[in-house]
Amino acid sequence: MTQQLIPFISQLALTEQLLWLERLNTLISQSMAAQHDSYKSSINVVLADSLSTLEKSRCEIAIVANPDPTTLADFPQLVWVQSLWAGVERLIAEIPSPTFKIVRLIDPCLAQTMADAVVAWSYYLHRDMPRYLSQQRSQQWQQHTVALTSERTIGILGLGELGQASAAKLRLNGFNVLGWSRTKKSIDNLTCFSGADGLEQVCSESDIVVVLLPLTQQTLGLINQGLFSKMKPTAGLINFARGKIVHHDDLITALDENLLSHAVLDVFAQEPLPQDNILWQHPNITVLPHISAPTNRESACEIVKHNILEYCLTGKIPPSVDFHQGY
């Protein structure tokens, strides 16, 4: 039996990379042992740096976790790469004409993790937690009216797996939910909008706007002064997508001019966020260190294992990124 080597390409800490390798190889070997007559070669996931130039030239599959995209040029025969992240915009931006397919991680566990975060931070804004934190700092004892969730409208921008899961969980908590996507969609129990006019309508009607869009040429800087001017002055913004979708200078201006009340930001154009960035100190901005929906190693390894073994058995590549759409 021949050996198929699959490089693991990442800028994660070595200890974390080794944890991924251990779990992936355990799951792959267990599945192959159960169907040992079905496979013509053994499969082993290895650190990319451990491979020789000759071995790199023979690799058909790579597993990537926020890699330096230029390193993929060392693997000229790649057929497809499996990302361990849902977002692959850096790969798309820095490899404009790849010879291989890029497969995003589509994980129901990731969608539910994101939905939990959307609900949690929506409640953070809904229950005026930034205001009470400010009052605590000034030792001010003052109560404010508590609205019902049914009196709050939350707009979800982006109706992919993450957006749909978040909308469903918000509805379970009693919120009124609107959804927006660039192209028209029809989703059960969700009022959906699309296009420029639909975006303005969702933003103008929402008490909280949640950004869950992919970063593409069409969404770059999409949330800007024009939209902030349409929002309620009491409205809040949550960005759990990509930093460059929100125009941060416009956001600061909008907050300073009371065009909206507060922003929760989990993603930034540069991460970690530089210590001298003004976003850290703004009183109406909550900064999070990209924690809204981390990849779950166990569930991700199961999905990646399935995709790899399916390809080795049938030659079928999992659904891959449309480079024209950007996701």
Describe the structure.
Residues 124-292 form the D-isomer specific 2-hydroxyacid dehydrogenase NAD-binding domain. This protein has 327 residues and is of the alpha/beta class. The protein has ten helices and twelve strands. It has two domains: 2-107 and 295-314, NAD(P)-binding Rossmann-like Domain (Rossmann fold); 108-287, NAD(P)-binding Rossmann-like Domain (Rossmann fold, 3-Layer(aba) Sandwich), CATH 3.40.50.720. It has helices at 14-34, 53-57, 89-94, 108-126, 129-137, 161-172, 195-205, 225-228, 248-256, 297-314; strands at residues 2-10, 41-47, 61-65, 80-83, 101-103, 153-157, 176-181, 191-194, 208-211, 236-239, 262-265, 285-287. The strands form two sheets. The protein has a seven-stranded parallel β-sheet with strand order 8-7-6-9-10-11-12, sandwiched between helices. Strands 2-1-3-4-5 form a five-stranded parallel β-sheet. β4, α3 (89-94) and β5 (101-103) form a beta-alpha-beta unit.
Which terms summarize this structure?
7-stranded parallel β-sheet, 2 domains, Rossmann fold, 5-stranded parallel β-sheet, alpha/beta, 327 residues
CATH class designation of the largest domain: Alpha Beta
Quaternary structure state of the chains depicted: single chain
Low-confidence runs (pLDDT<50, min 5 residues)?
A: none
Helix content: 25-40%
Radius of gyration in whole Å, from Cα? 22 Å
What is the residue-averaged pLDDT? 94
Number of strands: 12
The secondary-structure class comes to alpha/beta
Major sheet: arrangement of strands: 8-7-6-9-10-11-12
Order of helices and strands: EHEHEEHEHHEHEEHEHEHEEH
Which percent band covers the strand fraction? 15-25%
CATH topology of the largest domain, by name, is Rossmann fold
Whole-number count of domains: 2
The major beta sheet can be summarized as: 7 strands, parallel
- Between the first and last Cα atoms, what is the distance in angstroms? 37 Å
Please tell me the CATH architecture of the largest domain by its name: 3-Layer(aba) Sandwich
CATH superfamily of the largest domain: NAD(P)-binding Rossmann-like Domain
What gross morphology would you assign?
Answer: elongated
Counting H and I runs of at least 4 residues, what is the number of helices?
10
Keywords: NAD, Oxidoreductase
Pfam families: 2-Hacid_dh_C
Protein name: Glyoxylate/hydroxypyruvate reductase A
